[in-house]
Write a structure and sequence with these properties.
7 helices, alpha+beta, single chain, five-stranded mixed β-sheet, Trna Endonuclease, Chain: A, domain 1, 2 domains, about 290 residues, Protein Transport Mog1p, Chain A, 16 strands
Length: about 290
């Protein structure tokens, strides 16, 4: 397989995952710092109510593992063209220092590295179908994250966090998420009513003083009422970003814990997460 076949194979795999997004090969963008045209192997644009987000993909058909220099060069290009996310695909993998550098960027640039086999496995493992009672949702993990369905002390039907971390490491990093359902017998029970209950719990149970609450309109596949709430507290170092989708008798919600530095990118993640989520009812029969 030559480099063109390799790039075509990666493009085909990503096109399946991003079939509702704009995706193209051999794209060019003028760098905002370099002031010259930068060539991008694969370019993806995803439109949400938070604005466009862009992914740039670099296909490395090398005869060796990629190293830290390759990663730092790609980070520089991502910064130059102002992209939101970057992916390096290497057919022979990467060094430990390369993956560590990819996951630790002081500018908040999000970058991930996959071998071709890892990309295939990740694309088939990043989705999940969490459920509670007869409510279920097909979800896709945010960019570079995984879905962890193991039961934890934190009440949730599943947790989500960055690929390569343990659950405990994700908690310590302050950047993780979880999914749950709120059941209500009242069909008129609203997202705003659930939010008020949750805000009281933040104050009374967790003893956190709320400084600011912001709501944003969001979208989901079948037009259900969907909103995003951002809560900032005085005595808690993290921001809580919650996405809601209204069912007839329940509300599906995704809670993302974020460092203030990454508020913008995690707000964008939440918009994309809700847009890709597919809530539905399941028929539970007994006997």
């Amino acid at each position: 397989m030559d480099w063109k076949d390799y790039e075509d194979q990666v493009f085909e795999m990503l096109s399946t995952q991003h079939r509702h997004d704009y995706i193209t090969k051999n794209h060019k963008i003028k760098g905002r710092y370099s002031n010259r045209s930068r060539q991008i192997d694969i370019f993806i644009k995803n439109n949400t109510k938070a604005g466009d987000s862009t992914i740039v993909v670099d296909c490395k058909h090398y005869n060796k593992k990629i190293n830290i220099k390759t990663v730092e060069s790609f980070i520089s290009m991502i910064d130059d063209i102002g992209a939101d996310y970057g992916i390096i695909i290497s057919d022979l993998g990467y060094t430990k220092s390369a993956i560590h550098r990819a996951f630790n960027n002081p500018k908040g640039i999000e970058l991930d590295i996959f071998s071709l086999n890892e990309l295939y496995d990740y694309m088939h493992a990043e989705s999940a179908m969490p459920y509670a009672g007869d409510n279920m949702a097909l979800i896709l993990a945010p960019f570079g994250w995984i879905v962890d369905g193991k039961k934890r002390d934190i009440p949730a039907v599943c947790h989500l966090y960055k690929r390569g971390l343990t659950f405990e490491e994700a908690l310590a990093s302050g950047e993780f998420a979880y999914v749950n359902f709120w059941k209500s017998d009242d069909p008129n029970f609203s997202i705003e009513e659930l939010s008020r209950i949750q805000e009281k719990n933040i104050l009374n149970i967790y003893n956190q003083k709320i400084d600011k609450v912001e709501f944003y309109d969001a979208e989901c596949k079948f037009g259900q009422d969907a909103k995003i709430r951002v809560i900032k507290t005085a005595n808690y170092p993290f921001i809580e970003i919650t996405g809601f989708i209204k069912f007839s008798d329940s509300i599906f919600f995704y809670v993302c814990n974020s460092l203030p530095l990454y508020e913008k990118r995690n707000l964008r993640k939440t918009h994309v997460f809700l847009k890709n989520a597919l809530p539905f009812k399941v028929n539970i029969s007994h006997g």
